Amino acid sequence: MTYPEISRRNLLRAGGAVVVGFAAPVGWLGNVSPAEARPMNRPLDPGWLDSWIAVSKDNQVTIYWGKMDMGQGTDTGICIMAAEELDVGIDRVAIIQGDTALTVDQGGASGSTGLQQSGVAMRNAAAEARGVLMELASKELGVPEEELKVEDGTVSVIADPSKSATYGDLIGDKFFSKDIEWNGKFGNSLALKSSRKPKSPSDYTLTGTEVPRKDVPGKVMATSQFAHHIVIPGMMHGRMVRPPVAGAVPTAVDAASVTKFDAQVIWRDGFLGVVAETEWDAIRASQELAVTWSDPAPQLKTTTAGVHDFIRDAEIKSDKNTTDVGDTTAAIAGAALVIEADYEWPFNSHARMAPAFGLVSVTPEGITVWTDSQKPHSVAPGVADILGVPLETVRAIWVPGPGSYGRSDADDGAADAAVLSAAVGRPVRVQWMRDEGIAWDPKGVAAVTTGRAGLDKDGNVLGYDFSVKAFSRSNMRSRGDKANSLLAGHLLGRKPENGYGSRSPEQSYLFDSMRYTEKVIDPLMISASPMRTAHFRDPMGPEVHFGQESFVDEVALAAKMDPVAFRLKHLTGERDIAVVELAAEKSGWQARVGPNPDAGNGDILTGRGIAYAQRNDAVNAVVAEVEVNRITGVVWVKKFTIAADHGQVINAKAIRTTIEGSLMMALSRTLFEEVEFDETMVQSNDWVSYPILEMEHAPEAIDIHLIDRKEMDPRGAGESSTRIVPGAVANAIFDATGVRLRKAPFTPERVLAALQKV
User: Fold this and answer.
1) Contacts (Cβ under 8 Å, ≥6 apart) of 490
2) Residue 1 pLDDT exceeds 50
3) Residue 150's beta-bridge partner residues?
4) How far apart are CA 156 and CA 158, in angstroms?
């Protein structure tokens, strides 16, 4: 195969294929009307300014962003950062995102690095571009740069405003032809350094304000187009045929059983799918295909009911101390009072609003992948690997989809479509079914966290020991860039490479002796597993901090201290102290030791709980106010009050909505979500067997207080506020009832069982 010659102009006009159903495959949910870029005559290079920014003759700016917005409004933030540096109105800035032919690899939407890392990179690129433009303007207008000013992309002479030129006049449809320093790293760590210093925060006019997102009206009015709407000429529809039990493989397939649907059967090793001219025929063919499956012994080693005991007993494959201060073992052994507690977190499913989608066209000239994966720059090498073709022959185009939340099934959907398209020689669209998505998506990990603390007779903490024992957060690579990280690859015989990633608490607590330990065990099933684990929104964040922040409260009680006062005593970071103090102040926190004396004596008990954590230098504290129905066991979180320090606030509106979304997803996991499975298969396969938060369960109020540190670069908000919710809710339930819940989710059945033990 040869890769066709590509220009940005042609790609923007044609999208790499004739697309029916929406106007453009990239940038079409962007913030502004698109500006046409000039054609590229060299490969994408992070060290070349033209890989980041273009200016058209009509004075419009196009920026090329290697990540993408997954619904948080991050693309608006990127546009704000570029507009500020270039001195143009945000309506002049268009954004092209997540296309491997048009954007450099910035790792995708992961780790809340959109603004924290790639936004800063774009800011530096814009500062560099402004420098080039000012040099050109100085020559064009015949005065030094310091005698020029810029307003909305028009440069004029301060002493004589009649002398002016727009950016479009100066460089429209031309190259900057300027190198920019970069750190030589691709992915999330890619960084740029401008030879021109970016503006001082005091000169910003948009940053920190509430800038409306341009995609909201379309989403609210249901006029927006998404990945699942794409139609291209010659497209066929594919569906996978999954085994009824984990580990089963086809031993016989009767293709004649689906001839009435004019369906083609694709069978390669354990990979089995069907392709038809219509989606409905593909669905029916996948359901009616006669398959004989092998009868393997139970593969999953344990069940939902036994998984946490399994974790406790499992052989440790990776064991490391991430914090080790003093002699913690000796300190606890010599304590007057020792307390210990275990906390259990279940497997979680991504349970996206819509299951996996992928559309792939495999031709002799090249391969095009349309995907809603949050990492198209990983999808391209993953498809290349699974098909055995050079990476340069594959172009992946990101199109907005129904969310992701980590490494969901989107990567697998693209891989399925690629194998089917290569087999039939036509474009193939694959959409997983709901039961397939929840059953077979990569999972968030189950974990057991254990806290041990020793106190002296006066309640001072002598030693603090906290350990995490769990399945790896990365059985599958966080980037689906290799066939052995994809379900299709496993089914085709590619041997997985199991990782052993975990996480310790991120905070600034300090005790005289303290130790944090990460212990990782083998997966329940190595290959083609419905229980394979991968990155899940804030991987190992809620799992770990549920235990950490619950245990801090338990230690505070043993020390006979108010939970807020105890935290403030042991926190060392100035920013950490600030968010705890602010959350307590804004929530009207009332200091107490032990449960709320005013919780009530009727059917409804009320309480408050606090939790705090860091994530990648973002700092959050939240107070949860709950109502516990002692008759039904239902927990309602009535209000969240959150203090958030995410460095420099770029778009206040977007960060608030992002925090709200993070809180809601974490609350759903805290109260409802648990993957049910036995030794043969996942039993949770829809939103009845795997319930999620609904509108009736949402708080009546979410009170967000932002600390804007203008002197800092921005810090990510997409995940950091998820990890504080479970601990805050658990602490609030204790405050209301005197009952400590150490097993998530906090279902009515578990709440009632705990209340009955009091």
Assistant:
1) 270, 484, 496, 527, 528, 529
2) no
3) 155
4) 6
Could you give the C-alpha distances from 101 to 7, 95, 191, in angstroms and in order?
9, 14, 20
What's the CA gap between 690 and 693, in Å, rounded?
Answer: 10
Residue corresponding to tokens 């992928």: 358
Which domains are delineated in the chain? 8-222 (3.30.365.10), 230-297+351-440 (3.30.365.10), 307-350+442-521 (3.30.365), 561-756 (3.30.365.10)
Q: What is the pTM of this model?
A: 0.93
Q: Where are the beta strands (DSSP E) in 281-393?
A: 290-293, 318-325, 337-345, 348-349, 357-363, 366-371
Peptide linkage before 233 cis (omega within 30 of 0): no
Over its C-alpha atoms, the chain yields an Rg (Å, rounded) of 27
Nearest to 653 by CA among 252, 341, 178, 206: 206
SS3 letters for 539-554?
CCHHHHHHHHHHHHHH
Three-class SS of residue 493?
coil
SS3 category, 313: helix
The full length of the chain comes to 758
Give the confidence band of 474 by pLDDT, cuts at 50, 70, 90: confident
**Is residue 9 pLDDT above 50, yes or no?**
no
Pick from 221, 136, 224: nearest CA to 176: 136
Please state, in angstroms and rounded to a whole number, the distance separating the CA atoms of residues 220 and 437: 25
Residue 218: its pLDDT value, please? 85
**Phi, psi of 739, rounded to the nearest 5 degrees:** -105, 130
